[in-house]
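Researcher: I'd like a candidate sequence for this fold, 245 residues long. If you have to choose between options at a position, lean toward the conservative one.
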């Protein structure tokens, strides 16, 4: 599965997709009841799906390592049904983002066709109150009656020069080489003698933190900024932490 995922990421050129600023995408928000399957190429929706997943990874902080997807099907009809897109989603979560899906919430409609493994992670809700059994009312968007979050969504456009480090290939190569050497040596027997089980557990957790720090050092050179980097106050921090307000 790991080899297949790497091959897929190379074939789909995921690195180039992460270079894309979010204001260059064909769509930022997909309202299901307005979705027309033939209104855009299937590749466009596939690209958007992968971009959303890659952007979602920025917002995951240990111990939270999975995402929650909410499909609001209020006003949904058969004219909006896109089986190819749904199958693509299932394939992506199964093969290319394994164990990344924590829960899917289907709000406002039934959904009879599901793989049994995926079905175990799917919840059906009808009323806004039922949504609060899965998502705290403080985090529900303002359009839901049960919401206690009164902030209205406002897209923040890309700022000039925010992705200048993407073009600094020399700095990227130098940093990547240095970090790779650190990854190779940190936590190895040569770096530190093996200890008790408790010591090894502490060391493993420290290595995980070191890898996370190293990743976010290289991140500005391989991933374009998104609106969560531009928000005031800033949600996605430069050190990889996430601060929601």
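Model: Candidate sequence:
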């Amino acid at each position: 599965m790991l080899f297949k995922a790497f091959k897929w990421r190379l074939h789909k050129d995921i690195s180039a997709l992460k270079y894309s600023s979010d204001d260059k995408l064909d769509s930022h928000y997909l309202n299901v009841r307005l979705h027309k399957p033939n209104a855009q190429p299937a590749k466009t929706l596939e690209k958007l799906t992968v971009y959303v997943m890659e952007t979602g990874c920025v917002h995951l902080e240990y111990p939270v390592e999975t995402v929650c997807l909410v499909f609001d099907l209020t006003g949904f009809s058969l004219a909006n049904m896109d089986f190819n897109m749904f199958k693509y989603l299932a394939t992506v979560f199964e093969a290319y983002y394994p164990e990344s899906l924590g829960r899917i919430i289907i709000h406002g409609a039934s959904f009879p066709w599901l793989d049994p493994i995926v079905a175990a992670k799917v919840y059906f809700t009808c009323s806004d109150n039922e949504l609060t059994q899965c998502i705290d009312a403080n985090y529900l968007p303002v359009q839901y009656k049960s919401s206690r979050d009164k902030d209205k969504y406002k897209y923040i456009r890309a700022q000039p020069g925010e992705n200048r480090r993407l073009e600094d290939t020399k700095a990227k190569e130098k940093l990547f080489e240095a970090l790779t050497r650190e990854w190779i040596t940190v936590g190895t027997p040569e770096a530190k003698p093996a200890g008790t089980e408790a010591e090894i557990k502490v060391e493993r957790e420290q290595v995980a933190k070191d890898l996370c720090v190293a990743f976010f050092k290289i991140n500005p050179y391989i991933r374009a900024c998104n609106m969560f980097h531009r928000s005031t106050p800033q949600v996605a921090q430069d050190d990889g932490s996430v601060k929601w307000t």
